[in-house]
Amino acid sequence: MIGPYILYPMNFSNAEKIYLGIGGNQGAIINTIDSVIESLLNHSKIAHLQISRYYLTSPVGGPPQGHYINAVIAFDTLLEPLELLHFTQSIEQKLGKQKKMINGPRTIDIDILFFGNRIIEEKNLQVPHPRFQNRLFVLKPLHDLINQISTYKCTFEIDQLLKDFINTNSELVLPIDECFCMYKMALMC
Ligand code: AMP
Fold first, then answer.
1. What is the pLDDT of residues 10-29, one digit of tens each?
2. Is ligand 1 within 6 A of the CB of residue 108?
3. Which atom of ligand 1 approaches the CA of 124 most closely?
4. Closest Cα to atom 21, ligand 1: which residue?
């Protein structure tokens, strides 16, 4: 008998939990992030998606450029790490990512922050993402979804990383619903 409790055609009991950091500052970025989510939802080996709040963030490094929208997405997957990297890179290409300059403006960037409890040191894939702890625009949305993440070597306490964060780049990282409220309040003054 097929019960109503079967939600996915595949068995996700051996799936691994993934955290992706996504962001961009060119084009209709909220629509672009929504398209990333749609592509992930449509993959048969991806399930149980969770999405952080969307954040308005100031650019870090690179040339003068506009603000970004950033978010973090979590899900379970049956994909292997390089299969997931190829899939996220294919989404980036489909959504118009062009490799121009380091820290330069971009339509979309998708980083694999964590892959289960694995530590990956491949030429084209390092996980945990090597710079995730240095980026407020990653830590804040990540904290919306989880407080503690473990690899087989160590545990990261996300709220402690946020408390200890030294904001040398004066990064602005504001949930966009709060930006909208501030904008409305400014209009009322
Ligand atoms: P960027 O366009 O700056 O995001 O860099 C993309 C490059 O970083 C690609 O060549 C990837 O193979 C490489 N890369 C290494 N580790 C990661 C990771 N954890 N997530 C995404 N891309 C990665």
1. 899 999 999 999 999 999 99
2. no
3. 12
4. 111
Instruction: Tell me the per-residue pLDDT of 50-64, one tens digit each, with 9 for 90 and over.
Output: 999 999 999 988 888
Centre of ligand 1 to C-alpha 23, Å, is 13
Tell whether pTM > 0.85: yes
User: Closest by alpha carbon to 95, among 31, 150, 140, 151?
Assistant: 31
Q: Which atom of ligand 1 has the smallest separation from the CA of 129?
A: 19
DSSP β-bridge partners for residue 162: none
The phi, psi pair for 177, rounded to 5°, reads -65, -35
The residues, ordered by sequence, that sit 6+ positions from 70 with a Cβ below 8 Å of its Cβ are: 21, 22, 23, 54, 55, 57, 137, 138, 141, 173
CATH of domain 16-188: 3.30.70.560
Atom 17 of ligand 1: nearest residue by CA position: 125
